[in-house]
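Dear colleague,

Thank you for sharing your sequence with our group. We've completed the structure prediction you requested, and as agreed, I am returning the results in plain text so they can be pasted directly into your records. Please verify that the sequence below matches your submission; if there's any discrepancy, let me know and we will rerun it promptly.
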Amino acid sequence: MNAEKNRKKKMWCRAGTPTVVALAAAGLVATGVTGLPTEYGDVGPQAAPVAVTSAALKAAVDEGVSTEAEARAAAQKSGQSVEVTGLRQERRTVVANSDGTFSAKEFVEPVRTWQGGQWADIDESLVRRADGTWAPRATTADVTFSAGGEGPFARIRVAGRELALSWPGGDLPKPVIDGDSATYENVLPDVDLVVQAEPDGFGHLVVVNTPEAAQNPDLARFEIGVDTKALTLHETSSGALRALDSSSQGVVLEAGSPVMWDAGDGGDTSTTTARTAAFGTASVSAAGGLEPPPDAATAPVEMEVGQDKLTLIPSQDLLTDPETSFPVVIDPIEKTTSRTSWTSVMKGMPNEQDWKFSGSAGMGKCPIDYQPIACNGVDVRRLMYTMPTSFYKGKDILEATFAVRVAHIYNATPEDEPVRLYRVGGKNFGISSSTDWGNTDTLWDSHIMTVDKAVSPVSCSSAPNLRFESGKGGALTQELQTAATGSWTQMTFGLRAADEGDLHEWKRMCGNAVLEVTYNRPPAKVSMKEMWTSPGGVCATSTGAVRSQHVDELPKLLVIPHDPDHSKDEAEPVKVRFRVEWTDKDGKEQQYEKDTPYSSPTGAKFEHKIKVPKGKPAIPENGKVYWSAAVYDKATWGPWSWEGESAVRCEFVMDRNVPGKPDVDSKEFPEDKSGELGVGETGTFTFSPNLGDKFDNDVSRYSYDFTKDTAAPKNITPSSPTAPVSVQFTPPAIGTVVLEVTSYDAANNPSAPAVYSFVVKEGKSVAGQWNLGDDPVPSAEGRHVKDESDNSRAATVGAGVSFTTKDGPGGAADRAARLDGTADAYLSTDSSVVDTAKGFSVSAWVRPTALDKDGVVVSQDGAGEPGFTLGYDAVAKNWSFGVPANDVESLGEWRATVTTSATCKDSTTKPVCPNEWVHLTGTYDPANGQLQLYVNGELKKTVARQSTWSARGALQIGRSVAKYGYSRNFTGDIAEVRAYDRLTPAAEIKSMLTVKPARKGYWPLDTVASGTSPDLVGGRALTLGGGATLFQQKPEEVVEGPYPLVTSMGEQGAVPGGDLVLADNGYAATSSAPVSADGSFTVAARVRVAAESDTTDQTLFALTGTKTNRFLVRYTKYTADNPYGHWELVVPASDATAATALTIPDDQAGDPTLDGGQHIAVVYDGLTKRLRLYVDGQLADADNSSKHKIGYWAAGGGLQIGRAKSGTGWADHLSGEVDDIRIYTGAADAVAIGWMAERLAQPDL
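Please find the predicted structure tokens below.
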């Protein structure tokens, strides 16, 4: 080696151990995180830490918590970042910061994996399995290496697909294990086979140790045996290797075009002793893994792809060149596909690439001055990294950092050497194994920023040492904001030298880049329904239903703000900015803005009294004044109240000649306070003239409105022009209510509206509740059932009541009381429960078994008549709620009775039908003097109550009092009887219908027999068909893998589990519908898609009718405009082949090919007709969820897993894995969906 070359070598700085020479062929990798390794550092801005004293708080800081709300609360209390474990993935970590923001880290390579019921940090170290094979301790790919002997030397499994590679020379020697690599020595004379684990795949190296070994004719071309399961091998036009799913044709595994390299200056050109001295038995590991030395000579390897073999044709020029330094390595790397990727491209080799290179790759002008062989033909290198961005949709990006590790630099002493960061391509552009210089050179036109500083090299396992940091408004932050606003699914970043002709800017950088993003969800736009003036009223516009008000003084502006990142209990303060605009007397536009102090946004009012600043022209008489508001949460401004489709502002007219606003007062609901009454309780409001105003002495009527809904305001007339009037109001919900009152004079001229706002608290709790789901308690006085309220009014049970019914309104796990219709069929309290002269409500679930006579469900005794009856009217053949005219002798009654001509076959307007559960509610609203009857949460009848009186006797269940005893005993089942001494508003009545969902099917998919997998509760089995199989863990695999999507748990921890593997049009199905889906239902499963596809949609599950699907959930194929598909729920309006359908997309577009897949759930609430799609526990298309309503039709076919009905056949088969399938009658809430989405099995849910 000459002196000049020695001098230049000393200039080369590199972190890590000495290099070796290698020859690389094609390779393939798996996609893909516990606590983060310390090398990744802290995440996000933090306040000064406080002492963490609470054990729960300390656990939250140390271990993280499931939800964003919990994490934010813990971060604010502790002053430290807290991880949101519910958002943890193999390549993503999200933490809540103490300032209320969130920070995420997106890793190009996986940093953790799910193993045996818990997260584990990536660890490629090889360990021995029970069957003798070797496998990495913790990676996202299911990889095993041979223990020697016959069979494949490496095997990789992905979502039930398999690729196995075999050495052509016969039996293998036992491997020498060193860390993450296994070396099979002398597979040919002085030729070793080395396999090395990667975080998401593996590499296999053919190491030619000596020049003599290079002469072996078997190295002229050699065939690696290939055995696949549900995969097809394919070579791309650029020479890359892909393993395609045999059904969907999506890419499951991939590798860049093969290459080979020598040892550079670290090897030997002549002697065979170099293998031991420089390379050793663990030569590849010692050299830094699968990357060539910086000064290595490289050459391409030709490849021929067959379905049962992979033929590699090494470069004989490199093998036989006298200057070649041995050993030489041929290096294919198998990896799974993922939404993160990285590559290196070369100007001098425009059709080649180092796809998903291991370790580091060069950037800048290759230093040919001291690496003439290694740089031969390379010229300039650039690096590209593709990162997913769909997670940030709709978020406000506050800070962003792109970070990499610089492993080598040109100079011995670090100097300032600029590196440029670019966005490569436009929206959703991504790189692939076919990406090269030739097809990307023109896409580098979006320079983001440059870092120009001295960087000391580090190893690829260290913390990043080159950081492109961007604060609020910075270039990188703006790029990410563009992606978040524009719903980008991915973005590609590029690194290049500032001067690509300057050798000094040459560096080697690692592939494991990190994108760090701090974000906030902006405060919501202030609703115009929650904006009002005093005087004046709720926001009025020139075009809206509420027109501009005239006020006699400059009003107070009031709004109620909302911030999605702040919960009811943990609210970070926000402030409101008011903007006031007007035209002055000279016709010039004027405006000013005013911020409020910070305060909690949990339903509180923020206000500003208009006061024109000094120096501004006054607001003129009879001119319109416009106003708007926006909310700031110490991080982000929300939109102005006028922003959006309508683009209108609130307005009023300043008119000092308008009569002044009337006076308003209420003892029960004081202004701006929470009073003594709550929801459902009736209060009195008094209106009177403003006697201090000269125009207010001839009031003829008052117009008032509590709700500002579509109904017209109500009017009331005083007894004299100056007399006060009183009205009653029963608030339907908690929160701020705005009452508007306008007085009119004899000439019908309106006053300025008075605005009276008050806060409604929660209503009184239930006065009595008897669930009737437990066995009665015996006593000396007889049997009793418990009152679940705080009032302890136990009910005595008659002999005609039994508690054997086990299919209550909540399903098979629910219970109810059965009444036999005899005189002993009743339950009775010892005292009255409600005051029937005041507001009250009663409700119950009922299921009649006979309809030949009247049947009272609930009543309360009077002296000779019941105070009310709720039940069945045999004459009207329908439900009825009535109140007798008086207490002593029947003179008729005020009765709300449902009338319908429908039959029990009519699905939407059914009358009373035997053996069907119905929820009944009867209410008395004293403010309006009305009786109301609700059936299944819908108001069916309203009648006026003309007289009031108090029934002071006992409450009866199943009968009513008459003059000479009790009668009208109910025949059938009753459950969950409730009585309230207040009105229950419609929304609260609907909430009573939320019964516990009843599980109709649960398939853990852990066992299979005779082609079927059983339902855990003994119901319908799933029959496997086509290419469907069941993966079942062996006992030893619980610890060492492979692992199912959902971990089955026993008393001592994880136990053997399994999941459904779908390939080659495989499917599983029940013989009949577990639920009819014409009422409320929930269905859920965890799924891993084997590969994205551009040829077919892939159905997870469908419930079928005769001609189409009642509903289906599918993963869509990707297109040229969008490189990734997304989950969507499709619901046809009827059972017709060409029926119109409602489609709900997953707007976050997550990655279903991750090692753990995704959890998908569909919830339909038949009462509200509301449909919801959840992905990984998060509501999809949340902005439009209130619009997703559908009608009824019943499914007649079975539950299909992995396919959908198409005409008379089947289509859109899924390729992948499915686990933990559940189906319920009833609508599960978001909390239950969150439990279902856990990776640990929940068999009791």
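Summary note from our side: The chain has eleven helices and 94 strands.

Kind regards,
the structure core
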